[in-house]
Amino acid sequence: MVTSLALRLPAVRLVEAVLVASVVLFAARLLVPAWPTPFEGHGERFAAMAADPFAFDGAFPQRVLWPLLAHVAGWFGISATAFSQVCSGVLLATVHAFASSRGAKRLDALLVTVAVGASGAILVYQRMACFSDTLVLAGMLGAIATAGTARWFWPLVFVTALAHEMVFFFTPWLWCLRRQHGGGGLHDVAFFAGVFGVYGGFRALIALAGGGAYGASYYFEHNFWVPYGLPALWALWALVVLVEFGPLLAFVGWAWRAGELTRGLGGRAGPWCFWLGVLSLMVLAYDVMRFATFAVVPFVVGAIAWLDGPRRRLPFVVAILAAVVLYPWLHPVPSQEGGWHFTVAAGHVRELMPRLMDRDPVESARVTWELAVRTWPIVLGAVGGFVGVLALASLLARLAAGQRAVCGLGDDRTGWSGRDARS
Considering the entire predicted model, what is its pTM? Predict the structure, then answer.
């Protein structure tokens, strides 16, 4: 059964993960320099909370994990923005350790970590400093790694919720992970009830103390794009996913087609529940730049599975190089998180936004159509990009099939994914 990363890996591999993460993060900063100040709005609030995390004031004092860790880092002279870089390094180290725990060879674990470092999962937060999202992403990879042991899995979910409660939107997916590994019974019901109960009690105490300005009611009162504007928002999210991951998405497509996402993300319903969790985030918030980074979870699963086959490193390296070349072109201005295509589209969205306030279905349809007309070159480019990704995924599938034929293999379920399926 799958246990925690720390229990599966010897200390030398954990040290190796930290060293690799440090080097990859340094290289990422050459591609997109780290922003010297906290990101406007939420980033500034997180940085302010770090001064006294136990004051439990501000807009969202329940997200205490990042401010608490940043506060401790401050004892050693590490600023809030520098700690934001540390969190990106934590995500990269988790990716490397995750790959190693799945039996990936050292070079393959390095390649997967480099690929993540060249994607929006890291580069978005070079500009959007002082967010806790990288800790959430690391926690989700840790959830996959610990899915075989309830006593590790559910406490990790709780800790991740202290970084950001958005993890609860993925509850169906988390349940799929546990069921895939023999859980999902009364034992897990009790664990989940305990986790949710303790978290709910924590939130209740904060509310009684008068802390928090962004409760659930705030979001429901201000999500004027729901329900009729959601398709447009999801389309913008898909655009940013394409921009932030580029050709690397082909390995997600291949992994889904090959069944590797099914085996790595919680069984037949797992991938669907994961994407449903991402899309449901946009019922309450429109931060598509951040939500696009969640594609890193299926990418890491797919990338490890791809590199598990023979003679597959060259296509993967080519994809990384293509991503590195494309990223500066798609993000010519570092302050334009989401890329210049999204910046153009978002400008039109802001202009058209007042017409969505009444939540009229006819007017919302008109706004969506007008947005598509105004941005038709971007729409066509995005469609072409996804067609290209699907074509690359199909090419990878043919390449994998040819390799199996040459090697005399009848099934591509080798390596860590096959072992997990049998466990």
Answer: 0.92
